[in-house]
Write a structure and sequence with these properties.
Shape: rod-shaped
Structural class: mainly alpha
Number of strands: 0
Strand content: under 5%
Order of helices and strands: HH
Helix content: over 70%
Number of helices: 2
Distance between the termini: 72 Å
Largest sheet: none
Length: 64
């Protein structure tokens, strides 16, 4: 029930210090998880680019 009061803090209800810390911690953890996910996506895209490049080289050599 206390968490629901904190969720509606923008509507005039105040959050206690513990609720605010918990909400901040959840936001920080979510930010870290999103950052790690985006980093792994960048590495995957880079790897796919290298694979396509090496495939193009192999096709070019096979044609010659």
């Amino acid at each position: 029930m206390a968490l629901s009061r904190c969720v509606f803090a923008n509507f005039g209800m105040a959050c206690s210090g513990i609720e605010l810390m918990r909400k901040s911690a959840i936001a920080i953890i979510a930010l870290v998880i999103c950052s790690l996910a985006l980093t792994s996506c960048a590495n995957t895209v880079r790897g796919v680019g290298q694979d396509v490049k090496s495939t193009g080289r192999a096709v070019k050599q096979a044609v010659q």
